[in-house]
Amino acid sequence: MTEFNHITVLLNEAVEGLAINPTGIYVDGTLGGGGHSKLIASKLTTGCLYSFDQDDTAIKYNETNLATEIAEGKVKLVKSNFKNIKNELATMGINEIDGIVYDLGVSSPQFDDGQRGFSYNYDAPLDMRMNQEQALSAREVVNEWPFNDLMRILTRYGDEKFAKQIARLIEKNRAEHPIETTFELVEIIKNAIPMGARRHGGHPAKKTFQAIRIAVNDELGVLEASLEAAFDLLKVNGRISVITFQPLEDRIVKTMFKEKTSIPDLPQGLPVIPEELQPDFKLVTRKPILPGEVEQANNHRSHSAKLRVIERIKK
């Protein structure tokens, strides 16, 4: 079996948040190392879990990792982006689900495989594609996107204070020759950031790499589309658990959950809110659930994790 070292963050909390019905239909939108899928499957009797991932490595690993659960008919692997959950499930005759879990961002093996180009700690070709069959890669973003687009994604997706300087230096360097590797890009970023600023806030390339990765994989647009599909698919009493690792994702989840659980603006003095205007969803978690001290000590990647859960209460 392919080595796939991945510690699932907020594993029990996310699955407990789903309040599993043993006969229900569930979706793992982000299969990864299979941690959530294995735990959900262990709680099913006649129910079934559809586990999505667009990464070949994750699918191949879990063909073995979840072999028993697959053989028992409890798990079906689906090689597809989670934005496609509605269409993919429809092709299998599934139009309603009892719950879905998302564990967003890049999995540890994607970061740890230096040749995937996600990490600024390994010298590798600029890639960053979660789906290795898609055309757009980090190389194209870095070498072909206009200055204004580069500056926009560095600011919007990376909250990079020196976005303009980095984008300008990328533009200057690529005019001389294509930027091919992660370390070439790291060197450009370092040269664009004043020395004093490089002494604080972690690795100087962290924000730029995050921004390019989000752009390559359209992570925020995909998240919005998938959540909208999940809301539509959810049965009454069905739940959605979402684990985020960075503020942009968490803001989208928080905002979309708030929209679904809020009463629309009504005339003042209305004595009773009509049933049809009551929200279809309720928040299970008023505030996000965070990893405990032990989990944070054992897994440094859990530090920024937040879990939010929502439930459909009527249709």
Automatic annotation (TrEMBL):
Entry protein name: Ribosomal RNA small subunit methyltransferase H
What the protein does comes down to: Specifically methylates the N4 position of cytidine in position 1402 (C1402) of 16S rRNA.
The GO terms this record gives for MF are:
rRNA (cytosine-N4-)-methyltransferase activity
Q: Which domain of life is it from?
A: Bacteria
Q: Which gene encodes it?
A: rsmH
Work out whether the entry's keyword set contains Methyltransferase.
yes
**NCBIfam families per the record?**
16S rRNA (cytosine(1402)-N(4))-methyltransferase RsmH
Task: Recall the taxonomic lineage recorded for the source organism.
Answer: Bacteria, Bacillati, Bacillota, Bacilli, Lactobacillales
- What is stated as this protein's family in its record? Belongs to the methyltransferase superfamily. RsmH family.
Report whether Electron transport shows up as a keyword of the record: no
